[in-house]
Design goal:
heterodimer, A: 1 helix, 70% strand, B: two-stranded antiparallel sheet
Chain lengths: 530, 393
C-alpha cells in the first residue's frame, strides 16, 4: 500500500514536471477534471460482497496542445472492498497528440497493485502508438508495449507472473501492408520465456479492365518464429492467395471463377521437419437472371487438400424468386439442391424456403418464413415462423413472433417439436411514463417442457436530465424431466443531473427463487466534472 | 497464501525517474512533430456523411435546411445566450447525440427495427455484402428507425455491472476508453465522426467492413476499428484477454486454419455459402458483438461481453465459459444441434446445417461447448471461440 501511494505521488509529480516543461508558462495551462465515486454490492443470504471506487482525472490542454488536438491527463483511481479496510491507488499517465498527419498516444501505468484483494498482485504498463499518414503515402504505424503483471489472487488459476514486451512497425496501404513484430513474454511463475518474431506481407490488386471482364488478386505471406528459453523453437509459415475473375457480357448474366490456395508449414523442435497443411479451392459460378424476379445460380466447387485431408467436390444449383408483388408485399422463395460428387455423405441435398413480407397497412408489417429440408440424415424437417411488427401510432410499437418447428421422416409424418410465442409492446411517448411489456412462452412437445417469461418496465421519468424506471419480471419452467424453476425479480433505477456539472445515479434489484436465499444488488455513482 | 515470486518493487525515486523519462520522451516526440498552429481544419468532403444529407440528414430545427451545419452548430448571433465550444447547440457530450429536443429525433430511442435481422445485411451484389445495414436491394435505408444496430441511449449508458464484475456497456462506462466525453463517459467519437469519414458505413473513424481475411497473413484489415484497441496495444486498463483478440485473428501466428473463427466451407457446418464468402474468411466481430451494449434478445436481460441481441437465445449471457447452459445457448444461436432442423439458421447468408451427430451436439445435451472447442484466453495461441480448437472441429 505504501508503495502504491509512493508510486501515485511520483506519477503525479512527474506529470506535473512534464506539464511545466511542456507549457513553459504555468499560467497558460488549462485544466479540467472529473471526479467519480461508485459503489456496487451484492447480498445473498446475508453474505455481502462489493466494492467502492474513487476516480479522479485531471487533464490539461496547454500551449503545445493546439485546440482540442492534444491533451495530457493524469488519472488516479482507488478501489476498495465495500466492507472498508485498505484500498489501492492506481495512477495512470496519458498523453495524446494529434496533428494534421500524425497521431501519438502514450500511456504509462507505474508499478501498482492490480487488485485490492491481494497485496501480491501488481501491474505495470507502458504503451506507445504512433501513426503517420499523408495522402499518397502508405501509413506508418509504430506500436510498442511493455508490461508486467503478477497475480495469484484468482482462485483455481495458476500463478500469473508475466512480463511482456511487444514492438511492431508496419506500413499499410489501401489494399495491403507489411509489418514486423517482435514480442518477448516471460512467465516467471512457470519459469518460461518466449521470444517471437513475425514478418508479414499482404497485398492485393483490382485492376480496371475494359469491357465485361474483371479480375482481382489478393495474397499474403507471413513467418512467425518463437524461441523458448529451454531451447524449443517453433516456426510457422503461411502463404495464402486468392484470385477471382469474372465475365459479364450482359446485365443479367455473370460468369465467374475463384481460385484460392492456402498453405501452412508448421515446425517445432519435436516435430523434426515442417508439417504442411492447407487446401486449394477452385470455384466456378454462373449467375443468371432470365426474367425480372428470378435468379438462377449454379456453381461447382472442388477442394483439394494440401497435406492430409480428403477431396471434396460438389455442385450446387439454386433458384431464387424474389420481388415486390405490390409496393406493400414482398415475396421470396429459394430452392437449393446440392450434388455431392465426393465427400459430404449424409448431408441434406434439398433445401426450400419461402418468406413473405407484407405491409398490411401503414405501420404494420407481417413477415412469414417457411422452410423445409429433405434427404437429411433424420428425414424431412420443416420450420415455420410468423412475425408481426407494428407501430400503429408514433407512440406505440408492438412486435409478435410465432415460431413452430416440425420434424419427421416424411412430409406427412412431421410432428411439432417446438412452439414459441413472443411479444413485445411499448408505449414510447416523448413525455411521461413509457411502459414496456415483454413476454415469451416456449413449449417443446418432444420433452413436454414449458418455459414462460414475462417482464414489465415502466420509465416513469425520462426528461430534464432525470430518469427513473422500475421493472418486474418472472421466469418459470416446468416439465421435460427437469425440476420446476421460477425466478421473480424487481428493480428500480434512477439518475439525476445536478447543478454544477454533477450527476447522480443508482439502482437496486431483488431476485427471489423458491427455496433459495434472496439476492439483492445495488449500484450507485456520483460524477462531478470541473 | 503462495509465496510471491515478484522481486522488490522499485523505489519511489526510481519510479519517479522512469516516469519523468517517459514523459520527457513524450514531449520530445511532441517537439519533433509540432502541431500546426492553425485553427481546426475544415472537414474535408467525405464519402459517408449521412448527417449532411440534404434530404435525410439531421433535422433538429426548422430554421435551417435539413443536413445543414446549422442544425448542430449555432452561429454567435443566435438566440441562445451561451455559445459552446465549436458553437454547438449544447455541450459536446454523448447527450448531444441523444437530444430529444429535435424535430426529426436524434439517437436517444431504440429504433423500431432493433435488433437487426439477417435481412438487415447488405445483400450479394451490393458493395460489402454481409455488413449490417438496413437496406432495400442494397440501398441503405435512411432514417433513425433503420439504425438497427443501435439499442438506444438507455442501453449504451447502462452503468450496471454484470456478475463477474464487468460492465454491461464497457464502451460507455470504462474510463480507459480512448475518448471520453466531458462527463467521463466513453464518447461516441471513439468510433464515430459526426462529420463523416472515408468509411462507407456508420461514419466510423477507422476501417470496419464486412467479413474477409481469406488471403490475409495478419489480423484482417477489415476489422481495424476493433483491433485499434483489442490488440496488445490496447488501453492500459483493458483486461489482458481483451488485448489478445487481434492475435486470435492472426493466421500468421495461429496458422492451423481456425484463427478468427474462420469459415472453412465445411458441409458438416453449413449447406450453402454466399458468393462473397471465401474459404478462410473470418467471422466479423459484429456477427457476435454489438459495441453499443446489450438489452438481451428478450429485451430485458442484457448480455455481458457486448454480445449482440440478434440471435435467438442471446439473453442474460454473462458467463458462457463457466456456465454450460449459457455456453450452449450462445453457440446454438447460430449452429444447429444435430437433432435440429437443417437450414433453420442463416448467418451472413450462410445456410447452416445441423452439426455432426455426436452426443454433445444434441439439443438434449448439457455439456459446455467450450469444453471441447476451447475457452482459454491466457496466451496469444490459446483456443477459444475467436480461435476454436482444431481438435474440436
Amino acid at each position: 500500500m505504501h508503495g502504491a501511494r509512493a508510486n501515485g505521488r511520483s506519477c503525479l509529480a512527474a506529470a506535473a514536471a512534464a506539464l511545466v516543461l511542456a507549457g513553459g508558462r504555468a499560467e497558460a495551462v488549462e485544466w479540467s477534471g472529473r471526479f467519480m465515486l461508485t459503489a456496487n454490492g451484492n447480498e445473498v443470504g446475508g453474505d455481502h460482497t462489493g466494492q467502492t471506487r474513487e476516480f479522479l482525472e485531471l487533464t490539461t490542454r496547454g500551449p503545445v496542445f493546439v485546440q482540442n488536438r492534444g491533451a495530457l491527463s493524469i488519472l488516479l483511481e482507488r478501489t476498495a472492498g465495500l466492507e472498508g479496510g485498505r484500498g489501492v491507488l492506481r495512477p495512470l499517465g496519458r498523453l495524446d497528440l494529434e496533428g494534421g498527419s500524425y497521431r501519438l498516444q502514450l500511456r504509462h501505468r507505474p508499478d501498482q497493485p492490480a487488485s485490492y484483494t491481494n497485496d501480491d498482485s501488481s501491474v505495470r504498463e507502458t504503451h506507445m502508438n504512433f501513426t503517420f499518414s499523408r495522402p499518397g503515402l502508405p501509413m506508418l504505424r509504430l506500436q510498442s508495449f511493455s508490461g508486467r503483471r503478477e497475480d495469484e489472487s484468482v482462485p483455481g488459476r495458476r500463478l500469473l507472473s508475466e512480463r511482456r514486451a511487444d514492438l511492431s512497425h508496419s506500413l499499410e496501404w489501401i489494399r495491403g501492408g507489411a509489418g514486423y513484430r517482435r514480442s518477448h513474454s516471460e512467465d516467471t511463475g512457470a519459469g518460461t520465456s518466449v521470444k517471437t518474431e513475425q514478418y508479414r506481407l499482404d497485398g492485393g490488386v483490382q485492376p480496371s479492365l475494359s469491357g465485361p471482364f474483371r479480375i482481382a488478386l489478393d495474397g499474403g505471406a507471413s513467418r512467425d518464429v518463437s524461441r523458448r528459453q529451454d531451447g524449443r523453437r517453433t516456426e510457422n509459415r503461411l502463404y495464402s492467395y486468392s484470385s477471382q475473375a469474372g465475365y459479364a457480357p450482359r446485365g443479367n448474366l455473370d460468369i465467374s471463377a475463384q481460385h484460392a490456395l492456402r498453405v501452412a508449414d508448421m515446425k517445432s523442435s519435436t516435430s523434426g521437419g515442417f508439417r504442411r497443411s492447407g487446401e486449394q479451392t477452385i470455384l466456378g459460378r454462373v449467375f443468371w437472371k432470365p426474367v425480372a424476379p428470378v435468379i438462377v445460380l449454379a456453381e461447382r466447387e472442388s477442394r483439394l487438400p494440401v497435406g492430409d485431408g480428403f477431396l471434396f467436390e460438389t455442385a450446387r444449383a439454386q433458384a431464387i424468386v424474389e420481388g415486390n408483388v405490390t409496393q406493400a408485399v414482398h415475396l421470396r422463395g429459394q430452392y437449393l439442391r446440392t450434388f455431392y460428387l465426393s465427400g459430404g455423405e449424409g448431408a441434406p441435398r434439398h433445401w426450400w424456403t419461402g418468406a413473405g413480407n407484407a405491409r398490411l397497412f401503414r405501420g404494420v408489417e407481417l413477415r412469414t418464413d417457411l422452410g423445409l429440408t429433405r434427404d437429411g440424415p433424420s428425414g424431412d424437417q420443416t420450420r415455420e415462423q410468423y412475425e408481426i411488427r407494428t407501430r400503429p401510432t408514433s407512440f406505440v410499437r408492438f412486435d409478435a413472433i410465432g415460431r413452430i418447428e416440425r420434424r419427421g421422416p416424411s412430409i406427412e409424418g412431421l410432428t411439432p417439436s417446438l412452439y414459441l410465442v413472443r411479444g413485445e409492446a411499448q408505449y414510447v411517448a416523448p413525455r411521461g411514463p413509457r411502459p414496456t411489456v415483454v413476454w415469451e412462452d416456449r413449449y417443446t412437445p418432444r420433452t413436454g417442457r414449458r418455459d414462460r417469461f414475462v417482464t414489465a418496465i415502466v420509465d416513469l421519468l425520462s426528461t430534464g436530465g432525470t430518469t427513473l424506471n422500475v421493472s418486474v419480471n418472472r421466469t418459470s419452467g416446468l416439465g421435460g424431466g427437469l425440476p420446476k424453476s421460477e425466478l421473480l425479480s424487481a428493480g428500480v433505477r434512477a439518475s439525476m443531473r445536478l447543478q454544477g456539472g454533477a450527476a447522480l445515479s443508482g439502482s437496486y434489484h431483488v431476485s427471489h427463487r423458491p427455496r433459495q436465499p434472496d439476492q439483492r444488488n445495488f449500484a450507485a455513482a456520483l460524477e462531478w466534472r470541473f | 497464501m503462495r509465496p510471491s515470486v515478484r522481486g522488490p518493487r522499485p523505489s519511489g525515486a526510481r519510479a519517479l525517474s522512469r516516469a519523468a523519462a517517459f514523459f520527457a520522451a513524450a514531449l520530445l516526440a511532441a517537439a519533433l512533430f509540432p502541431t500546426p498552429a492553425t485553427p481546426d481544419p475544415v472537414p474535408e468532403p467525405s464519402r459517408a456523411n449521412h448527417h449532411a444529407d440534404p434530404v435525410t440528414g439531421v433535422r433538429r430545427i426548422a430554421t435551417a435546411p435539413v443536413g445543414d451545419c446549422a442544425q448542430c452548430h449555432v452561429p454567435h448571433d443566435a438566440e441562445i445566450g451561451m455559445v459552446n465550444p465549436t458553437e454547438l447547440f449544447m455541450e459536446n457530450t454523448n447527450q448531444l447525440c441523444y437530444t430529444t429536443q429535435s424535430l426529426g429525433g436524434c439517437h436517444a430511442d431504440l429504433p423500431l427495427g432493433y435488433p437487426a435481422r439477417e435481412a438487415d445485411r447488405m445483400p450479394e451484389g451490393a458493395p460489402y455484402p454481409g455488413y449490417f445495414e438496413a437496406n432495400a436491394a442494397g440501398q441503405r435505408l435512411a432514417g433513425l428507425e433503420y439504425r438497427v444496430r443501435w439499442p438506444g441511449a438507455a442501453t449504451f449508458e447502462n452503468a450496471a455491472i454484470a456478475p463477474g464484475g464487468r460492465y454491461f456497456s464497457p464502451h460507455a462506462s470504462d474510463p480507459d476508453m480512448p475518448r471520453l466525453d466531458a462527463t467521463g463517459r466513453g464518447s461516441c467519437h471513439s468510433c464515430h465522426d459526426p462529420h463523416g469519414t472515408p468509411n462507407p458505413f456508420d461514419q466510423l473513424t477507422a476501417t470496419y467492413l464486412n467479413g474477409g481475411g481469406a488471403a490475409s497473413s495478419g489480423p484482417p484489415a477489415n476489422f481495424q476499428l476493433c483491433f485499434e484497441c483489442h490488440s496488445t496495444w490496447g488501453p492500459s486498463g483493458m483486461d489482458p484477454e481483451n488485448r489478445l483478440i487481434a492475435d486470435y485473428y492472426d493466421p500468421g501466428r495461429n496458422p492451423e486454419g481456425t484463427a478468427g473463427h474462420q469459415i472453412r466451407r465445411d458441409p458438416d457446418i453449413a449447406l450453402y455459402w454466399p458468393v462473397s464468402v471465401r474459404t478462410g474468411d473470418m467471422l466479423s466481430c459484429s456477427d457476435c458483438h454489438n459495441p453499443h451494449g446489450s438489452r438481451g434478445q428478450d429485451g430485458v436481460t442484457p448480455n455481458a461481453f457486448l454480445l449482440s441481441d440478434e440471435r435467438k437465445g442471446w439473453s442474460g449471457i454473462t458467463d458462457p465459459i463457466n456456465d454450460p447452459e449459457q455456453s450452449r445457448r450462445f453457440c446454438l444461436g447460430c449452429h444447429i444441434p444435430s437433432d435440429g432442423v437443417p437450414g433453420s439458421e442463416v448467418v451472413r447468408g450462410i445456410i447452416m446445417n445441423t452439426l455432426p451427430d455426436e452426443d454433445a451436439h444434441r439439443s438434449t445435451s448439457t455439456e459446455s461447448c467450450h469444453k471441447c472447442h476451447g475457452g482459454d484466453y491466457t496466451s496469444p495461441q490459446s483456443y477459444n471461440v475467436h480461435h476454436p480448437s482444431p481438435a474440436g472441429l
